[in-house]
Amino acid sequence: MLARTPVTPNQVSVAAFLAALGALALLAVGRNIEAGALIQISSVVDGVDGDLARAKSMASRFGGVFDAVLDRYADAAIAGGMAWYALEREDAPGALVVGFGATVAFLLVSYSRARLEREGGMEAASALLGFASRDVRLLALAAGAALGQAYWALLVVGAVSYATVAWRLWSFRRPRAVEP
Q1: Which of 97, 89, 105, 104 is nearest to 145 (CA)?
Q2: CA distance 167 to 132
Q3: What is the pLDDT along the chain (180 residues), one digit of tens a residue?
Q4: Cβ-contact 111, 130 below 8 angstroms
Q5: 3-state helix, strand, coil in the chain (%, to 5)
Q6: Residues 6 or more apart in contact with residue 109 via CB below 8 angstroms
Q7: 57: Cβ–Cβ under 8 A, 6 or more apart, which residues?
Q8: How far is CA 139 from CA 64, 115, 133, in A?
């Protein structure tokens, strides 16, 4: 539907990022149900930019990098908002530490995939996706936020993210022949 409008893929990427920032703001003021909805909206909107770029023949290396960078900022904003919510409204020990740990885990999932693509090719990266895609992680965080269980959602999604990185490293550890 957006392919027939002047909306660009980069504008869609920014919209997804702004939705994540909105979720951070809503979590900070205790509006967890609305924040959960906004986290999921951010995820859905983020799924549109690449398809729109292909549909409009506007795919570019810059657009891919721009989207990936905004996605990392969005992940950090969502995790930060959830940690803030958990600190202020849940009886959660170490809420900020769990939030920080989850943020690092999210970054490592993305970084490990990028390195796999570089070192092993797209096939290797596709074969080693892990236990939960970004969409699944965001859905779990959205549900955790909406249910007022930000701490546990961060703890579980962070743990699954670390497990994904460990599994990728373990699976990719075999020496590969290097072409001269």
Answers
A1: 89
A2: 12
A3: 888 889 999 999 999 999 999 999 999 999 999 999 999 999 999 999 989 999 999 999 999 999 999 999 999 999 999 999 999 999 889 999 999 999 999 999 999 888 888 887 777 667 777 777 899 999 999 999 999 999 999 999 999 999 999 988 888 876 554 555
A4: no
A5: 80, 0, 20
A6: 130, 134, 137, 161, 164, 165
A7: none
A8: 22, 25, 10
Rounded Cα gap, residues 158 and 160, in angstroms: 5
Q: Which two tokens stand for residue 176?
A: 């590969």
> What count of other Cβ atoms lies within 10 Å of the Cβ of residue 122?
9
Angle at 167 between CA 48 and CA 20, to 5 degrees: 30
Range 107-113 contact pairs with CB under 8 angstroms and sequence separation of 24 or more: 107/72, 107/75, 107/76, 108/161, 108/162, 108/165, 109/134, 109/137, 109/161, 109/164, 109/165, 110/68, 110/71, 110/72, 110/75, 110/134, 112/164, 112/165, 112/168, 112/169, 113/168
User: CB–CB of 52/64 below 8 Å?
Assistant: no
Which has the closest alpha carbon to 113: 165, 61, 39? 165
How large is the C-alpha radius of gyration of the chain?
17
